[in-house]
Automatic annotation (TrEMBL):
It comes from the Bacteria. This is FAD-dependent monooxygenase. Residues 126-326 form the FAD-binding domain. Keywords: Monooxygenase, NAD, Oxidoreductase. InterPro entries: FAD-bd, FAD/NAD-bd_sf, PheA/TfdB_FAD_monoxygenase. Pfam families: FAD_binding_3, NAD_binding_8. GO terms for molecular function: monooxygenase activity. It comes from Amycolatopsis silviterrae. The lineage of its organism: Bacteria, Bacillati, Actinomycetota, Actinomycetes, Pseudonocardiales.
Length: 510
């Protein structure tokens, strides 16, 4: 397939990377990036690049990745609650300033022969190009203009968050809560340069209102900083900041928007990155998804005989992976929204809960990769000394074999006896709702009192994870014994839920 002209709307990382890859694959084509902003002004602070993303970028374009890595800042991660802190050594976690990343990608796009046109806003109707790549972000004008064809849907999260930064490098990435007189705020912070760190801070709506941030949000014009919030949070996180200031960049409280589209392409126009989809920041950045979209788009266009076939192949390849990540991201978002409810756990056990929160990492895998954290966390769950926790290969069965004392009853292991299902005081509850939905809240508030709730439902993986997440909500709301049916093939998932105190007992089905 021969392309003579390619127009890219949006000069963010995804758009620049797509332009470079497409120009390298179609050297005879005229490739132009239209960006409404100017090169030296950008929104945001640091961008994280996980090891898997780095591997994908290296396979697609080693030269540009080498430049990114050279300008990036490596770090480990940690979690601190009060005076207790745990660390996870990880040699492949990198972060880079957004402005620095853009400068690197701009240089490599131009080196490939891409024309960059800044300060220009273009609509699809104004362009005469064989292919139009709409990488124009979460507020995509292209997606809005062609909404009838793309079919976008937007869902807002319950919590609120804001992005800010500071002018010193944290020693490592850190997740840490601070309890103020108004409620709990949680920081996700990481260094991205020798003298810079990103701070993302989130809270629930009630705390946000009690602190007066509903007023400051309303009074802060778009494009300016919510200074009252920055001043408050700078004081609240003074220990983590080590006396340094919080810096804003159009910083204002937001609710995370999860965007899905029924279609990612129409005619010769294709959506890429946040224009097509978003996933909660707690599982990785939109930058990662956008650049990986660019790789898939370039590969599809290069291989196909017609543009229609190419765009269909791109969407067919990327949609399952993106939707899987969006499912994981929704679970992660809900976990962070309810993070303050777990602060009674020892921090090592809390880290186990964090790593297994979305079903992506099993407890045995975490025990193998980070025994210095997982072992004390599992010991806290089991009420034993760390030396009694077995090797990672035996952890799943060890968790299932832990005894439980609850409500005057003694259980020799965490597999529920079948007699409990029909016992007086046990209420069966079929779960067919998403755990963070209004319907789940209604279900929980409408439950009659019971000594034990036994959760049932479909046997697929997503439904099982939903059931375990709803179980945690019921368990914390009622204090009752929580049992969940889990297909036998998901024993490791069940073990992670038990060690994280999502449920008390499980019953294996199938």
């Amino acid at each position: 397939m021969k392309l003579d002209t390619i127009a890219v709307l949006g000069g963010g990382p995804g758009g620049l990377y797509a332009a470079r890859l497409l120009k390298r694959s179609h050297p005879g084509a005229e490739v132009t990036v239209y960006e409404q902003g100017v090169p030296d002004k950008t929104f945001g602070f640091g961008v994280g690049l996980a090891s898997r993303t780095q591997r994908n970028l290296r396979l697609a374009d080693e030269e540009s990745l080498d430049s990114i890595v050279a300008a990036a800042h490596g770090h480990e991660m940690s979690m601190r609650v009060g005076d207790s802190e745990v660390r996870l050594a990880h040699g492949e976690l990198l972060a880079i300033g957004r402005a620095t990343l853009l400068a690197v990608l701009q240089k490599h796009a131009e080196a490939a022969g891409v024309e960059l046109r800044f300060g220009e806003r273009r609509a699809v109707a104004e362009l005469d190009a064989d292919l139009v790549v709409a990488a124009d972000g979460i507020s995509s004008a292209t997606r809005t203009e062609l909404a009838g064809e793309f079919g976008p849907e937007t869902a807002e999260g319950e919590g609120l968050y804001l992005w800010c930064g500071t002018d010193f490098a944290l020693p490592r990435a850190i997740f840490t809560p601070v309890v103020t007189k108004h409620g709990t705020f949680v920081a996700h912070a990481y260094p991205y340069a020798a003298d810079r760190s990103t701070f993302l801070i989130e809270t629930d709506e009630k705390t946000w209102r009690r602190a007066g941030f509903d007023v400051s949000t309303h009074e802060t014009p778009n494009g300016e900083n919510d200074q009252p919030s920055l001043d408050y949070l700078q004081e609240a996180f003074a220990e983590t900041l080590q006396g340094n200031r919080l810096i804003g960049n159009r910083t204002k409280w937001l609710r995370f928007r999860t965007i899905r589209c029924r279609h990612w392409h129409t005619r010769n126009v294709v959506l890429l990155g946040d224009a097509a989809h978003t996933a909660h920041y707690s599982i990785g950045s939109g930058t990662k998804l956008a650049m990986e979209d660019a790789i898939a788009l370039d590969r599809a266009v290069l291989a196909a005989g017609t543009l229609d076939d190419a765009l269909a192949a791109y969407e067919a390849e990327r949609r399952p992976a993106v939707e899987h990540l969006q499912d994981i991201a929704e679970r992660s978002m809900a976990w962070w929204d309810s993070f303050p409810d777990r602060l009674s756990m020892p921090v090592e056990q809390l880290m186990v809960a964090y790593m297994t929160r979305a079903g992506k990492v099993t407890v045995d895998r975490f025990a193998e990769s980070a025994p210095q954290v997982a072992v004390p966390g599992l010991a806290a769950f089991g009420g034993v000394e760390a030396g009694e926790v077995p090797s990672p290969a035996a952890v799943t069965e060890w968790i299932l074999d832990r005894p439980l004392a609850s409500g005057g009853h003694q259980f020799p292991c965490r597999t529920a006896p079948e007699a409990l299902r029909a016992a007086a005081g046990t209420l069966p509850v079929e779960i067919s709702v998403r755990p963070w939905s209004p319907e789940a809240a209604e279900l929980i508030t409408g439950l009659p009192p019971a000594a034990a709730y036994w959760l049932t439902g479909p046997g697929d993986r997503e439904a099982t994870l939903d059931r375990l997440d709803v179980g945690e909500r019921i368990r914390r709301a009622t204090g009752a014994l929580l049992v969940a049916d889990v297909p036998a093939e998901f024993r490791a998932v069940a073990a992670g839920a038990l060690a994280s105190e999502r449920v008390d007992l499980v019953a294996f089905t199938g």
